Amino acid sequence: MMTIRTALRTSAIAAVLMLIAAVPASSDPYLWLEEIQGAKAVDQVKLWNGEASASLTAMPGYEEHRQRALAILNNPANLIVPEAILGDQVLNLWIDAEHKRGLWRSASLASFAAGKPEWRLLIDVDALGKAEGKSWVFHGVECLPPANRRCLVSLSPGGGDADVAREF
């Protein structure tokens, strides 16, 4: 039996779909931006990035601020923030100057809580990208509870919105 709320939601979705279908695609002057690898879209993004970069680098103190930010980000003494705690394991994606794409790793909760985590490397994203000729960006992981022994790792080629899911 359909509730009033479900009927209204279904009607609203149908109305939106009819409106979308009624608008010709050619009326959108920015439709070409949806072609992610299209020459026009890539050229436009390069132009925008160039303008933004020129504006930022022209600001007084830019290079000093940039160097300070890099020093903070690449400091090996940075606090380790758990990405997740699954059972008795702490997961972390560590990024530093040597591992720009990151090391996905785990340690026992006991060693982490004691302040001396004993890390086990799960995935070296930089090495994986080099081996496969891809510029992988780690986008997270979803593990199957309760044992959390099977996980889907999301990797993005080039850091875009699209992900490739791999079983781990």
Keywords:
168 residues; alpha+beta; three-stranded antiparallel beta sheet; 7 strands
Explained architecture:
- With 168 residues, the protein is α+β, with helices and mostly antiparallel strands.
- The protein has helices at 4-22, 39-57, 62-73, 109-113, 125-132; strands at 84-86, 89-94, 103-108, 120-124, 136-143, 151-157, 164-167.
- The chain has a four-stranded antiparallel sheet with strand order 1-2-3-4.
- The longest helix is centred in the N-terminal third of the chain and has 19 residues, at 4-22.
- The radius of gyration is 23 Å and the shape is extended.
- 10% of the residues are buried.
Summarize the structure.
Helices cover 38% and strands 23% of the residues. With 168 residues, it is of the alpha+beta class.
* Average predicted local confidence, pLDDT: 88
Number of helices, counting only DSSP H or I runs of 4 residues or more:
5
Give helix and strand order, one letter per element, not per position. HHHEEEHEHEEE
Overall strand count: 7
> For the report, how would you describe the main beta sheet?
4 strands, antiparallel
Shape: extended
Distance between the termini: 42 Å
> Strand order within the widest sheet?
1-2-3-4
Using the CA coordinates, give the radius of gyration: 23 Å
Q: What is the helix content?
A: 25-40%
> Which structural category do the helix and sheet elements fall into?
alpha+beta
